[in-house]
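Known limitations

Structure tokens in this collection are predictions and should be treated as such. Users comparing against experimental data should check residue numbering before alignment. To illustrate the layout, the record for YqgE/AlgH family protein is reproduced below. The input appears on top and the generated tokens appear beneath it.
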Amino acid sequence: MKPGIFLKSTSLLDNTFFGTSVMYITEYNEKGAMGFVVNKKFSRNLNELEEFKHILPFPIYVGGPVDQEHLYFLHRRPDLVTGGEPVADNVFLGGDFQAAVKLINNNTLTANDIKVFIGYCGWDYRELDQELAEGSWQLLEAGNPFSL
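Generated tokens:
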């Protein structure tokens, strides 16, 4: 497995946090795996959070159950948002979030360019491989995390 792939939960994960989830894997190595649920919107928009109350409405997604005290983001505009870590296929994780917020607010960045998450998903080394082997996840064909 490698970063940049999509996984879809199977019926084995119904009635759990991951039921009907589409996951985008951003890291996979000897430390474990990291990813974000890309198809479940959070109940509030970015502008509904106190720190960002003066910006335009912009969706947040529930990235996962881990560290829901922090925001994370994927983008595909390294020319505008510096400091991101390449994931795959012109998708970057993180970077200068304050710059990204300004670009969202002036409509330079749209939902086609950036996706903001509260929390993330994490697995220990080989844990995700075990979940795949038991049938909890299925690999999806390549896609675009900004279109889901």
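For this record: The domain at 6-140 is CATH 3.40.1740.10 (VC0467-like). The mean pLDDT is 94. Please report discrepancies through the issue tracker.
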